[in-house]
Design a protein that fits this description.
The chain is of the alpha+beta class. It is built from 1 helix and 6 strands; from the N terminus they run H-E-E-E-E-E-E. It has a 5-stranded mixed barrel with strand order 1-2-3-5-4.
Length: 125
């Protein structure tokens, strides 16, 4: 093997995996993220993490509102934060369903009609 052939082989062994990795990275970036599962409000289970979607039906307090979809309605607690939506807004809520007698959601995030996401970092201890 000539010196030139040896250099070419070394180059190919180095570049081919790097090029393959670049192609894989590009392909993975092009694949959309798995669709988030939206749970119908009527199907939420106590003590579970859920993502629900619906219409703000009523503002109950400065930190609580009622969300409704075709399957039912549920109160969403975001305290001690102000409700960032208005009655009639279509929103998505991610949170934990309380395991108490009263079925409500303690929200951690809310996607507003304009697509922006509000994270509720403030919580009562």
């Amino acid at each position: 093997m000539t010196r030139r052939e040896g250099m070419r082989d070394s180059f190919v062994r180095f570049v081919r995996p790097a090029a393959t990795a670049g192609v894989l990275t590009a392909l993975l970036a092009a694949v959309p993220a798995a669709a988030e599962t939206i749970t119908p409000i009527g199907d939420v289970q106590r003590g579970t993490a859920v993502t629900v979607q619906g219409t703000v039906e009523r503002i109950l307090d400065e930190d609580e509102f009622r969300l409704a979809d075709a399957s039912g309605r549920i109160d969403v607690y975001i305290g001690p934060n102000m409700v960032p939506a208005n009655v009639g807004d279509e929103v998505t809520v991610r949170g934990i369903v309380d395991d108490d007698l009263r079925r409500d959601i303690y929200a951690r995030e809310m996607v507003l009609p304009d697509g922006s996401t509000v994270t509720f970092d403030l919580r009562y201890d």
